[in-house]
Automatic annotation (TrEMBL):
PANTHER family: PROTEIN-GLUTAMATE METHYLESTERASE/PROTEIN-GLUTAMINE GLUTAMINASE (PTHR42872), PROTEIN-GLUTAMATE METHYLESTERASE_PROTEIN-GLUTAMINE GLUTAMINASE 1 (PTHR42872:SF3). Residues 148-338 form the CheB-type methylesterase domain. The modification 4-aspartylphosphate is found at D50. Pfam families: CheB_methylest, Response_reg. Its EC number is 3.1.1.61. It catalyses: [protein]-L-glutamate 5-O-methyl ester + H2O = L-glutamyl-[protein] + methanol + H(+). This is protein-glutamate methylesterase.
Length: 342
């Protein structure tokens, strides 16, 4: 379904999707209100949603769209996806699965079309379509350690901002351990993302800078243009930023973050993999588990894209496969009764 007030944009997007092959345009709408009404009568897998439209607009009507969409994933396709970082990050936090900057209608071909089709396919493909029957069989789960939590590392991508909000809402305010987060997101979004996550998590939240000391119960986020890794100096942990593409092709990547924590060989290290496309986090999870840490992953039902969590689960590295809220409670079980308060 395409929801955009521009007739030209609707026509171009429709043509682009049709040329991509194998995907049907089930409905179009010129306002968010029309989209809500149409979704009562038509079932779709993916909704391309503009944010700037007459009426209430895509952002304000997003909760209503998600309520009637019957599980359809929302991809924000908007010119606000860069200049309006606050609006876009808010949409992602409220449940939109992914975002794509819409160029001017005269420049809406080429690489944009390739990115658009890749995102639609990732959001719309079901496990049955993606793999032969019986192919998706996660390995048995590992036992989770019992040592007190010493550091919490969280990785996420597509759909991860919404999942992060759900996870931190159920995590006790005091865990007596530092928290590091890698979320795949362009650099222009990072300031807004850090502020929003801090508000949702009710914690001090900072963007990582080289040499920053990690503090218990505070969140440090990977910048959009470097990997966040951790090193120990004397009795404290510090941020070390590294460049270059990781094996997963992501920047920032979860793999270097997890691998650096594994190198600390600290009992009680816990990694969490939330919704995301691809396999980022598998190599880092393997290193973390080999060093005595534990890795928990989000379940398929609540993930916008069950790519990263699935890859870790299928590799036999997961100690739990649960919704974000239950993952938070599993982490809370490692911090002891004295500090399991909000």
């Amino acid at each position: 379904m395409i929801v955009d007030d521009s007739m030209v944009a609707r026509a171009v997007l429709t043509r682009m999707v049709e040329l991509g092959g194998g995907i049907e345009i089930a409905a179009v709408a010129g306002t968010a209100e029309d989209a809500v009404e149409a979704l009562a009568h038509v079932r779709v897998d993916v909704i391309l949603l503009d944010l700037e439209m007459p009426g209430a607009g895509g952002l304000n009507k997003l909760p209503d769209i998600l309520r009637v969409a019957r599980g359809a994933r929302v991809l924000i396709v908007s010119s606000l996806a860069e200049e309006g970082a606050a609006e876009t990050v808010r949409a992602l936090a409220e449940g939109a699965a992914d975002t794509l900057l819409k160029p001017g209608t005269g420049r809406i071909q080429g690489r944009f079309a390739d990115h658009l089709m890749a995102k639609i396919r990732a959001l719309g493909v079901t496990p049955v379509e993606e793999e032969p029957v019986g192919a998706m069989r996660p390995a048995p789960m590992r036992a989770m350690g019992s040592e007190p939590l010493s550091i919490l590392a969280v990785g996420a991508s597509t759909g991860g901002i919404h999942a992060l909000g759900r996870f931190f809402a159920d995590l006790p305010r005091r865990i007596d351990a530092p928290i590091v987060v890698t979320q795949h997101l362009p650099p222009p979004f990072m300031d807004v993302f850090a502020r929003q996550l801090g508000t949702a998590a009710k914690r001090v939240t900072r963007i990582a800078v080289e040499g920053m000391r990690l503090v218990d119960d505070e969140i440090v986020i990977a910048p959009g243009d470097a990997h966040l890794t951790v090193e120990q100096r004397r009795d404290s942990l510090y941020v070390r930023l590294t460049g270059g593409r990781a094996a997963s092709g992501c920047l920032p990547s979860v793999d270097p973050m997890f691998a650096s924590i594994a190198a600390l060989k600290r009992p009680g290290s816990v990694g969490v993999i939330l919704s995301g496309m691809g396999r980022d986090g598998v190599e880092g999870s393997a290193a973390l588990v080999a060093a005595g840490g534990s890795v928990l992953v989000q379940d398929e039902e609540t993930s916008a894209v069950w790519g990263m969590p699935r890859a870790v689960a299928e590799a036999g590295l997961a100690a739990a496969i649960l919704p974000p809220e239950k993952l938070a409670r599993r982490v809370a079980s490692r911090i002891g009764q004295n500090h399991a308060d909000k």
